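Same chain as my last thread, 115 residues:
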Amino acid sequence: MIDRDNLLECLRELADETFQQRVWSGRVPDQMSSFPELVCQTFDDTGLSEALSEGLVEAELGAEVASLLERLEAAVGRVDQSLPLEQLLVSQALREVRSLSKQIIAGLDPQAGSR
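reply #2:
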């Protein structure tokens, strides 16, 4: 079973460039994170990775969201995590991750657009 609330929280962070610039850089002492850590939280801590590998996402979250999550998994794999942070933040691969994350949030939380 996928922890939907945790997944939404992770996706919001994956979609938020301002958050990434602030927190991944370590400029805020009480807030620390990184791309690898967030990917682990998104796929492992939520149960998403297991659900994807077992083909259970569609039944739980619907076909459209399942397809987007599969695309997100592939997009995350294309991010070059060895890049310096400044380059990582502006990379096309991370922009794709942000875009897909926003689409998934909209599919999971239709009210998100009205907030």
